[in-house]
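Comment thread on ticket #2218

A.B. wrote:
> Attaching the input chain for the structure job we discussed in standup.
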Amino acid sequence: MSESRPIPSSDGKKRTNPVTFYRQVVAELRKVVWPTQNQLVTYFIVTMVFVVVVMAIVSLLDLGFGRMAFWIFG
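C.D. wrote:
> Ran it. Output below, let me know if you need it in another format.
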């Protein structure tokens, strides 16, 4: 792929045209190492477990602080 020449814009910043931008995006996406299906399932499960644990912690804190507020001001 040839080097792209930036197009100067009115505000002094360098810009590339849309076709060159698209080619650069496609070239970068080809460099990406995509996860296998097993890795993807593992990542999904780990993420869901983490989210459920954090939700439980936040819910318990909310319940505790709510009851404490009612005990103090109730």
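A.B. wrote:
> Thanks. Noting for the ticket: Residues 55 and 70 are 22 Å apart (CA to CA).
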